Amino acid sequence: MPPRIRFEKICNSYALRTLKFKENHAIKKIYIEEINKDRDELAASSSSSSSPKNSTIKYLLQPKTQLLSLISRVQQLIQNWKIEKISLDWQNPWSPPISTSFSISRGSKEEAAQEHLKPIESLQEFLEWDLIDIYYTDGSKDNKSNAAAVCKIGERNRIKYATNWNLGPYMEIINAELYTVYRALKHLKQQRLEDKQVYIFIDS
Q1: What CATH number corresponds to the domain at position 180?
Q2: How far from 49 is each of 37, 41, 46, 52, 58, CA to CA, in Å?
């Protein structure tokens, strides 16, 4: 990719990133202050003259710093709203990374189903106090379509959340299984949980 295009891409990416800044972010405070200052100057020039010159308006609306030039790119990028979804969730940069572990049964599907009942039983007290989350995911395929489902359980197998999707006839079964895990993680993220253990049981 040519350097000029790479540079444009970096600048546009930073402009979009500013949409995620919180109100008290130092950079956001600076550019809001500058924009308000220009707005006040434009209002003052309008009040002093019934018809301000076009050159004056053009000067006041022109970004005067490199930062404002970057921010002004957002106007060009969001005309058709063809941008990625912006998450407004605050993520502490000092937060520790998520720790994960995987366990795969070496037995048959029936043996694995029995094996997983033991840890479920031992976790009942934690479920009662809502200290952990347990999800089950499943994907299935027949001659006509694919289906996917996610279920979150509480104490004594009480269903706390359950949903399913018709994925159409063209998706492979492995993709259906992966999609259910993705949706379970997405639902988990929406809960905004901190320091909570999560178990996801997949039968594939």
Answers
A1: 3.30.420.10
A2: 19, 12, 5, 6, 16
